[in-house]
TrEMBL record:
It catalyses: O-succinyl-L-homoserine + L-cysteine = L,L-cystathionine + succinate + H(+); O-phospho-L-homoserine + L-cysteine = L,L-cystathionine + phosphate. It comes from Carex littledalei. SUPFAM superfamilies: PLP-dependent transferases (SSF53383). This is plant cystathionine gamma-synthase. The lineage of its organism: Eukaryota, Viridiplantae, Streptophyta, Embryophyta, Tracheophyta. It comes from the Eukaryota. Its cofactor is pyridoxal 5'-phosphate. Keywords: Pyridoxal phosphate.
Amino acid sequence: MVVACPSLETGYVSCPIQGPTQLPVLHIKPDHLPVISDASLTVHAGEKQNWIPKCSIGTPIINSTARWFENSEEVIAFKEGRKPSFEYARYGNLTTKVLEEKISALERAESTLFVSSGMGAIVAVLLSLVPPGGHIVATKDCYWEARMFIQNKLSQMGVSSTFVDMNDMNLLKEALQKHKVSLFYADSPSNPLLNCLDIKKVSEPCHSHGALVCIDSTLASPINQKPVTLGADLVLHSATKYISGHHDVVGGCVSGSENLISKIHSYHFDLGSPLVPNAAYMIIRGMKTMHLRVEAQNNTALNIAQLLEKHPMVRHVYYPGLPSHPQHDIATSQMSGFGGVVSFEVAGDLHATMKFVDSLKLPYIATSFGGCESLVQQPAVMSFWDYSAAERAKIGIKDNLVRFSFGVEKFEDLAADILQALQNMILCSHTPKLPSCG
Ligand SMILES: Cc1ncc(COP(=O)(O)O)c(C=O)c1O
């Protein structure tokens, strides 16, 4: 396999109007690459393209709807693939291409497609790779909106689905035997309960039955986990989270072999939701510090998870970095860090939990995760308020569940804030009284 890495002389891709004839092949150039650590790749991969003037270290934003040609001869050379370029901005953009190469390098994938949101990447994958009449096996706790799309919308297009428990291999094997499965789709870790899937173990039976494996690795980030190296065919991200990292831009990407990405790309010509070049620039800028941010978030989240686990006002902590997590061994074997999201159940009901959340001073009460600012939310209130308590319980969303996304603030400040909010919760009439609270 050709692995994408920072290229000093990458050519453009030819994108004639009828679809991509070819996506870029990026070759490792060892003499140009003294270092290939993730830290160096986040900074350098995809940069120093031959179209970027030497007066600029930052990647320029190419805001143009189309490229122009010197003359008809040049148009013909382009059409025949002799002068590759992006003809029209819906098919691709040079600023975005830098970003795509950066992600390919980090994910150790041949190719990447960047689109305008994570959900856009998910829908592009599902529509392009699962034919009408096809079958999808997905995990029950995949991203909720992806699950709703598979269940309620793809079903209307003649695509059937089976939802399985993440670690019940028997259900997966049964579905593979019973149906002609086109795609196995899962999040690892999952949101918000942080279940982890043994990616290597599920990929083997899927491949032997001709099914592709796609992993939503958003909660891990490309720093902590590389699903393609574990056997997955595709890895996708809501780049809105760790990749952009600043809670200020929406984007999504999918990486895999050139063959698969070019299929998704050509379908995406019709979906028509490219990332705008300004957003690509912001994401590239955000990514320069992704390794530093994620490392800080990993450390803070692990330390807080350990603190919470010992606290008498906390009933349960969900974090793959804790030995008490049911898939801790799987997580340890396939992740280099466990991410910045920690979910936990406090000792109290819906209202006591609201009191805890409202007592926090540092984090914003907001959905999303992965940015510099810590965010907190109570899923029963924020994401699942429209669902009955019984429906929420069925999918494991208890009233007292809190999802904390740690930013890059100092651990001591966050810990002090959480401890004071737990203390404050004790004063709430909905909270069982405990003798002492750390
Ligand atoms: C795990 C996961 N995947 C995909 C998405 C969708 O991404 P976006 O909001 O960028 O469309 C989200 C959004 O929260 C998510 O959490």
